[in-house]
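Dear support,

I submitted the protein below through the web form. The confirmation email said the job was done, but the results page showed an empty box. After a refresh the structure appeared. I'm attaching both so you can tell me whether what I see now is the final result or a partial one.
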Amino acid sequence: MAEVASNESRSFGQYDVESVLGRGAMGMVYLARDRRIGRKVALKTVQVDQKFEDESEANEFYKRLQREAEVVGALQHPNIVTLYEPGYENNVISYLATEYVDGESLKDRLKRSKPLPLDEALRLGDDILRGLAYAHSKGIIHRDIKPANILVTSDGQAKLADFGIARPVDSNLTAVGSMLGTPNYMSPEQVKCAPVTTKSDLFSVGVVFYEMLTGLKPFASPDVSGILRNVVEKDPQPASEANQSVPPAVADFVKRLFAKAPAARFESATAALNDLQKLRANVPAVTPQRIEQLGPEPAIETIATGPTGTTVRTGAISAAMFWGVLAALVIPIAAWAVAIQMETDPQPMGVITVVQRTDFATKKHSLANARSLAEAGRYDEALSAYDVLLQKYPGNLAATAGRAEAAKRLEAAKAKTTVTSHASKSRPLPAKPAQAPPEEPKKRSMWNRIFHRGDAPPATKPPAKKPPSKQ
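What the results page shows now:
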């Protein structure tokens, strides 16, 4: 709901502010009226939090911003909020006058109830991809697709809004010292500050699809650094497992949209739109006409067991009455659960500074270095690396678990070394081979004892002496 503007009348050029609509990516958003033709517009102020080295750099920045505003202003499509004109103050852009949409944002729609019915989610996704395909065909990358930037009209049509940080495909305009966007919906390329293409928008659409179908953010985490790490590394649970009413084919479609590698995603928004339209044709929608085809609701017969164990039919209850009683019991509990979810649903948004980005990269690099040392068997060095990391980031679960594992492996290695050394010291020297006992003299036969006196064996004949050599 729009907030009433302050008593002090405020205007931007030919536009008179009537109320506050909210905050956009680059400043406040007002509901205003064009004094020239009486048309309502959404007036988005441009507040660039950027410091420049000199005046020439600032002039170049605003010139490029002007050229890009003109490109975005040329987008005319039913599923894109039209940019009417940019406004100027001191020869630089100070506001953007855009189409006013009578409805609500997808973010507010999800706050009322999530997940969305399958048919509604697919229909809104069709509109989103249709508008995105048109923008890409004109060479424009949105770069900040999220539920807050998707408006849903009163008749249920989705429109892409807030092209305030959109860039032409060949633009080299970047924000110095900050990274614009919303962490939960950024692509891995945006997190890594790699070149951004149209496929980055497809990743963000996949995240929005997942949230519409399951009511969950696939990369949610209590802090921004955790979200960014999940975007780069985490593979979320398939949508069909998070919400069993989602068909596997639809879950596969969403999974392909936010594949980590851009090459694994759809070739274009047009290709994704064509696949989605085939899915919609094969997924039966529950409409009033379909309900009539199903016929009247059957009565539900209640059965009880009598005192003697016999089955007693107690009568029939209409299905409407049965479901009415069930709804009376379930709806209050469901509403309570939704209220809790809305209160505890983290929505970190806004600008990620270079310091935060550098801190995240440093933490990731330090953790990878400690792990590689442990895998190489250099456990002492790994423990030192983990200690340095935990000193800077106390309570880091990955570092704590990694250090415990490295310490465990080190103790095991030490124990193995000790056992081997002890065994080598206590091993006895090999025993000398035992000499064979002298052979016992053979017993003489009776014949020898009769004809040879004494017990000694017969003397052996001495060896013949050699004749003396002649001198």
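Response: this is the final, complete result; the empty box was a page-load delay. The two ends are 143 Å apart (CA to CA).
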